Automatic annotation (TrEMBL):
InterPro entries in the record: AAA_dom, FlhG, MinD_FleN, P-loop_NTPase, ParA/MinD_ATPase
Record's keyword terms, sorted: ATP-binding, Nucleotide-binding
GO biological process: negative regulation of cell division
Domain AAA: 30-197
Protein's name in the database: Cobyrinic acid a,c-diamide synthase
Keyword Nucleotide-binding recorded: yes
Pfam families reported in the protein's UniProt record: AAA_31 (PF13614)
SUPFAM superfamilies linked to this entry: P-loop containing nucleoside triphosphate hydrolases
Domain of life: Bacteria
Species name: Paenibacillus bovis
Keyword field contains ATP-binding: yes
Cellular component per GO, a single term: cytoplasmic side of plasma membrane
């Protein structure tokens, strides 16, 4: 069995590699949709703390709250957003003016009521929106979309326009079933979608792997699709405590199991190679092309 000292050495080595990994930047931000098959699995909490973990590794990250009706990224951080997407789409503000700073100085955009009109823009407004997105993509490494849970058309729009989709699930049977259902529908509509799995609230690494394997087995057998497991986050009482205090758990209790797990997961993510079909557009160009194609 690996002793504690060896485990610590491995962790420090992984962190060194993540810190040394080249940054994206230069207009090549990676667009990542974070989603789940059902609500209540901790998707938004994962998105927030994952973003903070990436930020600790020196990456420039923006969180875009894209959950229509249930937007709560600002609530989880205990802050009140002065502006949201509607102020951009109405022309009142430029995109850099609606970007707020939350816990850990994390940049985020509140969705609010503006999300509804985002899917019915005129051609002129659509060009304006994509031009604004280009402005922030030039200065970011990652843009994380915290989408709504389930299979709404709005969630599908973000997933199929992004470079990658992180599916968050828990070991609960209903969460596993709904995660597979979401993957099946998205894959049926867009086979080039790149998925990664995250198991939240796992009692152990063994349970996390077993949960991931249940999904990966059926996607491999019935969809001929291999989905990697990105990592897991332990079931930790500090997480619920942090939600009540409206402070991200990785700030509230940086030494707890969940915080260590999310940091390990971020380190693994930074050093893992991108997987895209040859010839496919990624980054800002890919996002804009796919968004405009699906908005017409």
């Amino acid at each position: 069995m690996m002793d504690q000292a060896q485990s610590l050495r491995n962790l420090m080595s992984a962190k060194a590699k993540a810190l040394e990994a080249p940054e994206r930047g230069a207009g090549n931000a990676k667009f990542v949709a974070v989603t789940s098959g059902k609500g209540g699995v901790g998707k938004s909490n994962f998105t927030l703390n994952f973003a903070l973990a990436l930020q600790r590794l020196g990456r420039k990250v923006l969180v875009f709250d894209a959950d229509i009706g249930m937007a709560n990224i600002d609530v989880l951080m205990g802050v009140r957003s002065k502006y949201n997407l509607s102020h951009l789409l109405s022309g009142e503000k430029q995109i850099d003016e609606i970007i707020e700073k939350g816990a850990g100085s994390l940049p985020y955009i509140a969705g609010g009521s503006g999300l509804n009109s985002l899917f019915s823009l005129s051609e002129k407004d659509l060009v304006y929106f994509t031009t604004q997105i280009q402005k922030i993509a030039a200065d970011m490494d990652y843009i994380l979309f915290d989408t709504g849970a389930g299979l709404s058309k709005e969630t599908l729009q973000f997933i199929m326009s992004a470079d990658e989709c992180i599916v968050v699930t828990t070991p609960e049977p209903t969460a596993i079933t709904d995660a597979y259902a979401l993957i099946k529908v998205v894959y049926g509509m867009e086979e080039s979608t790149n998925f990664k799995l995250v198991v939240n609230r796992a009692e152990s690494q063994k349970e996390a792997v077993q949960t991931s394997d249940k999904i990966r087995l059926v996607t491999s057998r019935f969809l001929n699709l291999e989905i990697p497991m990105l990592g897991f986050v332990s079931d930790d009482s500090h997480v619920s405590q942090s939600v009540k205090k409206q402070v991200p758990f990785s700030i509230h209790a940086p030494g707890c199991h969940a915080s260590r797990d999310i940091q390990n997961l971020a380190m693994q993510y930074v050093v893992s190679p991108d997987a895209h079909q040859e010839g496919s557009l990624t980054g800002i160009k890919g996002f804009i092309q796919k968004w405009m194609r699906r908005t017409k």
